[in-house]
Amino acid sequence: MSDKVKVTIDGITVEVAPGTTILNAARQIGGDIVPPAMCYYSKLEGSGGKCRTCIVKVSKGSEKDPRPMPKLVASCRTTVMDGMEVQNITSPEVIEARSGVVEMLLINHPLDCPVCDQAGECDLQNLGYEHGLQKTRYEFERRTFERIDIGDKIQLHMNRCILCYRCVFTADQITNKRVHGILNRGDHSEISTYIQTAVDNDFSGNVIDVCPVGALTDKTFRFKNRVWFTKPIDAHRDCPTCSGKVTLWYKGEDVLRVTARKDIYGEVEEFICNTCRFDKKKTADWTIEHPTQISDTSVIASNHYDTLKPLPVIQDNARLQEANRVELEKTTKF
Amino acid sequence: MARKLLLEHINVPDIHTFDVYRQKGGYRAVEKALKTLTPDEVVEEVKKSGLRGRGGAGFPTGMKWSFLAKPEGVARYLVCNADESEPGTFKDRYLMTHIPHALIEGMIVSSFALGAHTSYIYVRGEMMPQIRILEKAIAEAKNAGFLGKNILGTGYDLELYVQPGGGAYICGEETALLESLEGKRGNPRIKPPFPAIAGLYGCPTVVNNVESIAATVPIINDGGDEYAKIGIGRSTGTKLISASGNLVRPGVYEIELGLPVEEFIYSDEWCGGIANGKRLKATVAGGSSVPVLPANLTLKLANGDPRLMSYESLSEGGFATGTMMGSGGFIAFDEDQCIVRNTWNFSRFYHHESCGQCSPCREGTGWMEKVLHRLEYGHGKMSDIDLLVDVSKKIEGNTICPLGDAAAWPVASAIRHFRDEFEWHVKEPVKSLNTNYGLANYAEPIAKAVSTEN
Cα separation of B14 and B135, whole Å? Predict the structure, then answer.
């Protein structure tokens, strides 16, 4: 017996290691069938299951037990079984439920994208474009909070928070002592360090990178520039505390901000330390590698036509090549 | 007189003390189980009895026990869920206050069956008097040799602890309860893994309601087959019902499952009818989480047969015309009660108690509450009614734990059965502040009620 299990997601079959979640199996296929994830973060243990945007329909449980699962499941926390069949974008039920979740996420969100530093690289913004309604059905006052400074470099803007718990897991797992968590309950919940106790840790800046929305922002970058006007460049330095592999965000000659490198799902590849993030903002501090590869769906990628490449799964599947012929022809033109 | 198993000696003076309880035949089940039965035989008896979980979901207790993983060298736990906080349900508090030893006896028998050597009773924080009563009772049982090391010389050890909760409704959800018991924030865990595989401190754990655990005592005393003879169909045994609302005699009753709802409400043996000579308008049959039903559908099934107090009969007809047994919190509303106000009140509760972990419940419960508040106070719009139905659909089934469903069902069912009354609130915003919609056709024979719904 092979040690791989077969799972079919939206009609595309992939073989993955046992214990893989549906979401990660979908990521191995790639493309539009990957469920969006607002709270799941592969680098953080225990994350996921909360935001419910990644819900999918399991139309066949497994080869042994082909019954479908009774409810939609969170793909980030459900492991695949051999022969499982999953419907994501091919199921109207899933699309309906997902747009419901997006609506719930947005009813208390301030929608202040024009003044939000996260705009342009915001997961919620992307999700809103894809699933949101043009007009809100929510006619009540949104919940508001005062802004809180977490240390002198990070600002917490709770109004924008979607309570994904990623920063809580980061503080818990990356840093040595846990200093912040969730206060209160229900829709009064808030991320807090309790009476603004400063997060004092070499790696505390990573909470900015894991935040899917603009709730945690870099105070050294706040209001400096829109992200799509900056040019991301991969660079590294010999750092005694972290790997030193970062992305520098240039405007002209100036490094406006430093972040960790992120993969196509917006997840940090390696966490970086606060020295690299906040204090090394000169080109001379860094060894420049090359321009960062940005997903072609991102606003930051405008004019980066060289990134249009068919997904690996399309490259070696004749049927999918045929189905995507028009798109592929466009790609070869560039 | 109906048969009583749990509340048989409820009126005996000082039944809360060990001596009186023992005199009345208490702790016979412990002696029988520990001395003459093996743990597997106890589980088998409970399976035979057909006992179903009394906390709300109605899952067969024996089957739940048999799912418990039994890896070598890993501790197993039994946790009693006494975090009873559903609006309308107060049966466990009554049982713990008056016959605490029934619960402790059940805990010993159940722990023995599951091979647990440490067991917990997680009591809601507000029930401080009950916590003291239980602790005193545990001390008495320990003195008498029914707890601690080498119980009754059989070599079986059991330590029983009472843990006060912080008073959150969500901690009645089994995984949130375990988190809270571990000293963490009481957020429900994402399942799988289920507690039977990895529960308290990552060890296999069974979480049972107070009443389910207490019910193991008569099962062991009389045998599972004997217990299964009581009741109707797959709803075996007796059930504590906490009746409240506009009844002549509200209170906690022990009924044999299968009692007609009409008899339960109107018979002098039970609730004695609707107070002040008024007429019944609606009921919530199993605690605030279950769908609300108008009077006609409460008393009769859609096909005209009488509705019975049993798991099957109450849920007959699905959510279109049925409800659920739930935790046995029976609330009756007379003709002067406002369904909109009541729905808002329930919704406010769920908004307040949502843990805020997953988005549909965190945001949706607050949204529903605000819309219902607007309807109740005369600022509603016709479109609000459909909005509520849509929001409740978006919450239902898409959350981590059943609290989302519990918040959605009362709203969806209230609109399903009482849409006229919601519309009246929109059309008559001023009038609805001072008067009530009244009984309307909610108590009329079903054929008519159904035709007006269509």
Answer: 16
Contact check, Cβ <8 Å, B394/A101? yes
Beta strand pairing call for B329-334 and B238-245: parallel
pLDDT of amino acid B302: 85
Q: Average of pLDDT values for B353-368? A: 92
Closest chain A residue to B192, measured at CA: A78
Instruction: For residue B158, give the nearest of B45, B78, B67 by alpha carbon.
Output: B78
Contacts of A188 in chain B (CB under 8 A): 356
Q: Which residues of A touch B (CB under 8 A)?
A: 48-53, 55, 71-72, 74, 77, 97, 100-101, 103-105, 107-108, 137-138, 140, 162-163, 165, 181-182, 184-189
Q: What share of chain A is helix, strand, coil (3-state, %, to 5)?
A: 30, 20, 50
Show the domain range for A40.
Answer: 5-99
Contacts of B394 in chain A (CB under 8 A): 97, 100-101, 103-104
Q: What is the ipTM of this complex?
A: 0.85
User: Whole-model pTM?
Assistant: 0.90
What is the number of structural domains in chain A? 4
pLDDT at B83: 93
* B150 and B211 together in one domain: yes
Q: Which of A62, A52, A329 is nearest to A163 (CA)?
A: A52
Residue A31 buriedness (CB in 10 A; 0-12 / 13-18 / 19+): middle
Q: Which of A223, A245, A260 is the last residue of a domain?
A: A223
Number of structural domains (chain B) is 3
B246 and B221 inside one domain:
no
Q: Residue B304 burial (CB < 10 Å; 0-12/13-18/19+)?
A: exposed
For A163-210, the pLDDT digits (tens) are: 998 988 888 887 666 666 788 888 888 877 665 565 677 888 898 999
B217, B307: one domain = no
Q: Do B190 and A74 touch (CB under 8 A)?
A: yes
